[in-house]
Design brief:
Length: about 130
């Protein structure tokens, strides 16, 4: 049996990618899969007890181009792969948020109440920063 592991980085910045899916399967098509691992905060993943043979490696992470490659795993070998993904932005439909105005909570509640009654001079953050 062999061990297949490695680290996944963002190609453009070299930062580790946390939460990417790394899948390892043998043979073409939907055949026996070794499994899927999720990269940790250092971008690392590990498959233990991988039998010798030819495998398909697929790496997926939202907002990045998928990586697909083949691996040859020799008996008793330990593979430490250095992988990287390039950013591939996903264009989303525009989003419009509509909400009713809610009364402020906490310490601003009394501030807003007094300001509505026009009792005094009131300065908000923008007004203070202008002065």
């Amino acid at each position: 049996m062999s061990v297949v592991g490695g680290q996944l980085l963002e190609y453009e910045t070299g930062r580790p990618l946390d939460g990417a899916a790394v899948s390892l399967a043998s043979g073409p098509g939907p055949t026996r899969g070794i499994g899927t691992r999720v990269t940790d905060s250092d971008g690392r993943f590990l498959f233990r007890t991988v039998p010798p043979g030819s495998y398909r490696l697929v790496v997926r992470f939202l907002g990045f181009r998928d990586l697909r490659d083949t691996l040859e795993v020799a008996p008793g070998s330990d593979l430490d792969l250095a992988l990287s993904l390039s950013v591939s932005p996903i264009e989303l439909e525009p989003l419009v948020v509509v909400s009713d105005r809610r009364p402020p909570l906490g310490p601003l509640r009394d501030f807003e109440r007094r300001r509505e009654r026009m009792n005094g001079t009131f300065l908000d953050r923008e007004e203070i920063e202008r002065r």
